[in-house]
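Tip: read the tokens left to right.
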């Protein structure tokens, strides 16, 4: 069994060596542990310090691509290296790397395809209340929509089975955390959470969350787009049906007044009702069209999966 720990890094020369050196190199039931650093176009000495600290592989983007694209490249490089299990961690030393064995245990026991390290955000006194409750709210929304039990959807300390990594297709350019959960759930892959330690950041600010409003906006956009890609029919059918029924209500209201009270009055209700009925019908039709496109997407994903199996053959 080969474990590859991937570390997306952007200008983390101060903390990255600590992360690399803390990763355990001998783990029960794992024959080989390798560390792969993916530098996202850093302008400091991130690459130099990564090599000096003992990273087995260091690769670099030509320019700053963002976390999601860097994570995607990390998965691809780890699969090329023959990883049976992939662990993703951050370069800022907030995650305790000695807990990697705990993070991969459910995969080794065939209990999960993806394991998320639960930071237990509600207990973190040092986290800003805006970030804390933003995380809690985002995880709650995903739980309600997906029907899963993930309580820390934004945690980046995760492990993936080889099968799971090959079936993930990251489309977001912002962050991968929510998108990977949605994809796993839609493809019936098992997700497990394990409690982990989360440390206070050692100076500096998050390289991802530069602006809280922008982060929330981008995250919601990613969630919405992913749902529309993977489950468009139900979403459009529900929305179209609601619009159609509201329009029907106004039409019935107009007819009731027409036959019982004021004759030809309330023409506005009739016009609004017709407009909403037509709009709702169009949205429902759009749902059927999206479902046909979705069927084609599933075929393409299966083809891509088989190509990956061939390309990353061990």
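Filled-in amino acids:
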């Amino acid at each position: 069994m080969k474990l590859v720990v991937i570390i997306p890094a952007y200008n983390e020369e101060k903390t990255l060596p600590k992360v690399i050196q803390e990763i355990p190199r001998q783990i029960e039931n794992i024959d080989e542990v390798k560390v792969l650093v993916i530098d996202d176009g850093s302008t400091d000495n991130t690459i130099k310090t990564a090599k000096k600290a003992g990273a087995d592989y260091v690769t670099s983007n030509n320019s700053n691509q963002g976390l999601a694209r860097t994570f995607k490249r990390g998965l691809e490089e780890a699969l090329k290296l023959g990883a049976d299990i992939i662990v993703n961690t951050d370069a800022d030393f907030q995650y305790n790397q000695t807990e990697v064995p705990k993070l991969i245990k459910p995969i080794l026991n065939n209990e999960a395809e993806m394991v998320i390290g639960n930071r237990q955000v509600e207990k973190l006194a040092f986290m800003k209340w805006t970030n804390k409750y933003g995380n809690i709210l985002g995880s709650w929304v995903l739980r309600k929509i997906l029907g899963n039990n993930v309580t820390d959807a934004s945690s980046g300390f995760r492990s993936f089975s080889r099968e799971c990594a090959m079936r993930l297709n990251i489309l977001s350019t912002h962050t991968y955390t929510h998108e990977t959960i949605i994809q796993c759930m839609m493809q019936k892959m098992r997700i497990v959470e394990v409690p982990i330690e989360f440390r206070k950041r050692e100076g500096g600010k998050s390289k991802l969350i530069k602006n809280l409003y922008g982060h929330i906006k981008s995250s919601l956009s990613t969630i919405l787009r992913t749902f529309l890609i993977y489950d468009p029919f139900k979403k459009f059918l529900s929305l179209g049906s609601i619009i159609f029924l509201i329009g029907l209500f106004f039409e019935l209201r107009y007819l009731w007044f027409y036959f019982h009270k004021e004759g030809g009055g309330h023409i506005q209700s009739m016009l609004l009702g017709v407009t909403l009925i037509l709009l709702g019908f169009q949205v429902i039709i759009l749902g059927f069209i999206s479902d046909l496109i979705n069927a084609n997407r599933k075929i393409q994903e299966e083809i891509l999966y088989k190509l990956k199996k061939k390309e990353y053959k061990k």
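The longest strand covers residues 2-9. The mean pLDDT is 87.
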